[in-house]
Amino acid sequence: MSLSRRQLTSAAVASIPLAFAATGTAQAGGRHPRTLYIAGDSTAAQKYSDAAPETGWGMALPFFLRHNLRVANHAVNGRSSKSFVDEGRLDVVLGAIRPGDFLLVQFAHNDEKDEDPTRYTEPWTTYQEYLRMYVDGARARGARPVLATPVERRRFDAAGNAVPSHGEYPAAMRALARREGVALLDVQALSLALWQRLGAEGTKAYFNWTATEQDNTHFNPPGAIAVARLVARELLRGRVLAHRDVRRLDEEIPESWISWPAPATA
């Protein structure tokens, strides 16, 4: 992922207090509401008005969840499973997470960047080792870890077939999930199938294609909503969540529901 314009946005994300980063509000008194924490990269992250219409799928996920389940989106532009840990961001999440909460982890886009030692991980060794930190950390605090394979980029071959772009990382995550008994959302396979159905031209309406940018990695509102729907359906299918926790899985979500707040100031 490019860190030019988006690195500015990630600085804003880093400065947001935890209470603001969480979508929804705590109930006044009474039982602590369950929270679904997202640890991930720019494909999931909160975007701000200076990045619109770019939209992370984590911004749309609350539309598919009931009000008794909050979303705390800690995904940040440009981060890998390694750099998220090394920067202390996992510590922040684990300091806030409580028994009964969920930690949804999606990384690989930036783990793949072997030219950058601050972010690169090798699929079958260090990538799995870092993912295990998230799994073990959540479990130690009574929360449930959930691994999500990375959402696919918009990439097609000359024959018009959607082409996978994440190498061995999805397979490595699937293997780790099986070995550790962790719920897995196979977003990579589902998004690849969705892009195949939409086709090379149709997918342009889901990615951040504008008059000045042709972005085949990040989403606009329709794309973020579509991927969030995949995530919510997988949470239900995998029995991470129950039917009482989800809503609107088959309903149209208006693009107008997406909003981009002003960037935070230090």
Helix/strand order, N-terminal first = HHEEHEHHEHEHEHEEH
Principal-axes geometry comes out as: globular
In spatial order, strands of the major sheet run: 1-3-2-4-5-6
Total count of strands? 8
**Stretches with pLDDT under 50, minimum 5 residues:** 1-30
Distance between the termini: 24 Å
The main pleated sheet reads as: 6 strands, mixed
**How confident overall, as mean pLDDT?**
90
Radius of gyration: 17 Å
**What share of the residues does DSSP label as strand, in percent?**
5-15%
* Strand-pairing-aware structural class: alpha/beta
Helix percentage range: 25-40%
Key descriptive features of the protein:
36% helix; alpha/beta; 14% strand; 6-stranded mixed sheet; 9 helices; single chain; two-stranded antiparallel ribbon; 266 residues; 8 strands
